[in-house]
Amino acid sequence: MSTVINIPSSLDDAGIEKVLEQLATVPADAPVLLDARHARWASPYGLTAMLAIGQSRLEKATFSGPEAEEVASYWARTGFYKHAEGIFHLSGHVPKGRTPGESEVLLEVTPIAASEDVHNVVARIQHKAQQILQNLHIDSKATMGFAMTLSEACQNIIEHAGTGGWVAVQVYEWRKRLGRRVVVIAVTDAGQGFRRSLETTQGRRLTDRWDDGTALEEAVLRGVSRFTDKGRGQGLAGIRRYVGRWDGKLTVRSGTARLAIIPTWDDDIPLTKNLPAFPGAQMQIVIPERLTR
Amino acid sequence: MIHHIDLGSVLRGSVSEQYTNLVTRPTGKSVRGAIEALLGDDEDGDAVTVIDFTHVGLLDFSCADEIIAKLLQRYDAREPADAPAAVYFIFRGLNDLHIEAIEWVLQHHGLALVAEPADGEPHLIGAVDDDERMVWSMVGRIGACTALVVAEQAGFEPYRAERALVDLWHRRLLRCENGQFLAARVAS
Asked: Is residue A293 scored above 60 in pLDDT?
């Protein structure tokens, strides 16, 4: 008998936490039904994290998608179903014959497993990003920085996850939270996560307070990498710099902790610990529209 | 001996014909390996090598670290453990975003390079102090000269000028021939 996990109507980072809370007591090898029939909205983070949840299950989970036609259709256009087919047993309404890619989907849900995947993602994003970021009053120089940021975020999977992951980029209106449009990058995997990645470094001294939160602080704030060569760890530092320059927000969740680099327009918590455990790392970057005077 | 290395061609030849962007560490490692193989053919040493970014699209931090930082470190005579023959690099075709990624990794490693823009004067990018920047510009302006000449022109004590010049030479940002320091240049 499968445990039913209710997917909230709004599947964003907060919605994913609600899913993980429900999954916390269910063993990874137990059957689950992820019930998204009543979902109305999903962010790139929600969609990619849902795939990572599927990846993390030892017993293939069943996924029941949104019943509302326009929602299901949108999820299909993001490329979600294309990959969900291989990860879940799909039940209920499964939209067919939808071609991924529409104007607000800057990059559909895309698997990242190797260096060539990053090349392909960067090449695909460059042209479209220029057009869309200009609409957000973010200048053309930022487009290349955006692609660099995306590249570094994706490489984090290849270098540290030990498994494949997912990336998606989308532009949408953040009316309630910000009253502006935003471009959102989500990069998620269900791999080994930051703590275990850093623990693989020989000779690393593990202190009493060593945990997922400390590992995130080391990696994201201090640029520490499992690789000992001095040039490592600059990718995340570069992401932080880009996000800071464009008044953006960066959140990284790994294991039981979540770290946020918070802009003035947001009131998130810098470091949250004791979250429900989830493998891998889940990164979200939000770049808001520039206000013109 | 002067090498001209079109990085776009090296990328396509060593990684993929389809690529124009220098992204990811594996790509950087392959490209650096190809550059080192090209340089390895030159047994004479004291070569000037132009690294041309004109046909490179995006350069990310990881690739900049893997190509630029590691290449400069390998030929840096301050770390002579396995430093090969002297090679002087000149970087051309850099756009603002290439420079941003490169500057970031150079500062991180305490390295510097010579950039030669198409429409401006050669200049240093990266970690150089005020003395080094000043004497480097001076040598570029007045041509081959001794540390004493530079000291007089700069109003430095001779030891101060010499220290900066020798450091720039060891970092392969200046050449040194018969006690005279000179810029590494290529006739255009």
From this structure: no
From first CA to last CA, the distance across chain A in angstroms is: 58
**Hey, what amino acid is at A119?**
H
Quick one: tokens of A183?
């471009």
Residue-level pLDDT at A83: 95
Tokens 């695909």 found at: A124
Residues on chain A touching B62 (C-beta within 8 angstroms): 151-152, 155, 234-235
Residue predicted with more confidence, B110 or A106: B110
Within an 8 Å CB–CB cutoff, is residue B61 touching chain A?
Answer: yes
Phi-psi region of A83 (alpha: psi -120 to 50; beta: other; left: phi over 0): alpha
Q: Kindly report the nearest CA distance between residue B26 and chain A, in angstroms.
A: 7
CA distances, B13 to each of A33, B22, B26, B33, B51 (Å): 49, 13, 14, 12, 15
Q: Is the ipTM reported for this complex over the cut 0.90?
A: no
Residues 6+ apart with CB under 8 A from A133: A139, A140, A142, A143, A146, A183
Answer yes or no: is pLDDT of B43 > 70.
no
**Contact at 8 Å (CB) between B167 and B182?**
no
Q: Could you tell me the strand order of the sheet in which A257-261 lies?
A: A105-112, A165-174, A180-189, A278-288, A249-255, A257-261, A271-272
Out of B26, B61, B105, the one facing A152 most closely (by C-beta) is: B61
> Could B16 and A119 be called an inter-chain contact, meaning their C-beta atoms sit closer than 8 Å?
yes
- Rounded Cα gap, residues A82 and A99, in angstroms: 9
* Chain B residues with beta carbon closer than 8 angstroms to that of A118: 23-24
Q: Which candidate, B80, B3, B82, B76, places its Cα nearest to that of B39?
A: B3
pLDDT per residue over A79-106, tens digit each?
999 999 999 999 988 887 555 555 567 8
Residue A155 has its nearest CB partner, among B19, B62, B70, at B62
Q: Which of A286, A285, A276 is nearest to A56 (CA)?
A: A276
CA B149 – CA B163 distance, rounded (Å): 14
Tell whether B12 is within 8 A of chain A (Cβ): no
